[in-house]
Design a protein that fits this description.
The chain folds into 2 domains: 130 residues, D-Maltodextrin-Binding Protein, domain 2 (3-Layer(aba) Sandwich), CATH 3.40.190.10; 95 residues, 3-Layer(aba) Sandwich (D-Maltodextrin-Binding Protein, domain 2), CATH 3.40.190.10. 30% of the residues lie in helices and 27% in strands. The chain is built from 8 helices and 15 strands. The strands form 4 sheets. Strands 3, 6, 7, 8, 9 and 15 form a 6-stranded mixed β-sheet that branches. Strands 12-11-13-10-14 form a 5-stranded mixed β-sheet. β1 and β2 form a beta hairpin. The longest helix is centred in the last third of the chain and has 17 residues.
Length: 243
């Protein structure tokens, strides 16, 4: 992929062109985190603070809508001046790229349950310990730091399914499961997506799931440490102001 460069002409005697590289700001469309606009820009819970940080830092950028796997490949390869929006920080990713400070913290994972599912248990651990409870999870979806340990010890019937969240919600509405685990941010949209296809669904909160993971800009090693420092300074201001 060719580098994106913007050049401007310095006015005056012997004016010369000054070129500035542009960072590709990559995202994959996933409401409500990043949603593509008519003009090609993105908006959402992670897209907005990412754009605000670049603007406040005075760093030129251009939105790029590409699948997550493609972002992963390009950032690991390190041939593009690129930052992916909303990535979780892991040791493996940090070894091949650069992370900024957090641009967003997820809210706790919830359940999207049948409206008539009213268990006495208020914790995910207690529900997961009940062999009669049926839980759905989407393969490849991250549920935060509290959920994996709870599910690993579950006696409940847990199904991990490849497919979109709407399909899993339809399974719940059809009575094939009691609830599907979901990021809180997506739960209302998920419920609305199947509202006319079966019984009503509701959000099920767990009193033992309290920690949400942080999302970051994950940049290729081609992005300079100075740029990362500028972005971190801007992110601190954006997060503090909420803009």
């Amino acid at each position: 992929m060719k580098k994106l460069v913007i050049c401007s002409l310095l006015l005056g005697v012997g004016g010369s062109a000054v070129c500035e590289e542009v960072v590709l700001l990559s995202y994959y469309e996933r409401a409500p985190y990043a949603v593509r606009q008519v003009n090609g820009d993105a908006t959402g819970l992670t897209a907005d603070p990412a754009a605000a940080a670049f603007q406040k830092a005075g760093i030129r950028y251009q939105w790029q809508a590409i699948p997550a796997k493609r972002q992963l490949f390009q950032i690991e390869r390190g041939n593009t001046l690129e930052c992916g929006v909303g990535w979780y920080k892991t040791a493996g990713r940090a070894s091949v790229g650069k992370f900024t400070d957090p641009i967003y913290r997820d809210k706790p994972t919830v359940g999207v349950a049948r409206f008539n599912f009213n268990p006495p248990e208020k914790s995910l651990a207690a529900l997961a310990a009940n062999p009669s409870v049926r839980i759905l999870m989407k393969n490849g979806l991250t549920y935060g730091r509290d959920v994996p340990a709870i599910i690993s010890a579950a006696k409940a019937h847990v199904q991990v399914i490849t497919g979109d969240q709407s399909s899993l919600a339809r399974m719940v509405a059809a009575g094939r499961a009691d609830f599907v685990l979901s990021p809180y941010e997506e739960a209302s949209t998920l419920i609305a997506s199947v509202r006319h296809e079966g019984p009503r669904l509701k959000i099920l909160h767990f009193d033992d799931v309290v920690a949400g993971d942080t999302r970051h800009l994950w940049c290729s090693n081609k992005v300079s440490d100075d740029t990362i420092a500028k972005l971190n300074k801007a992110i601190a201001q954006v997060v503090k102001s909420g803009k």
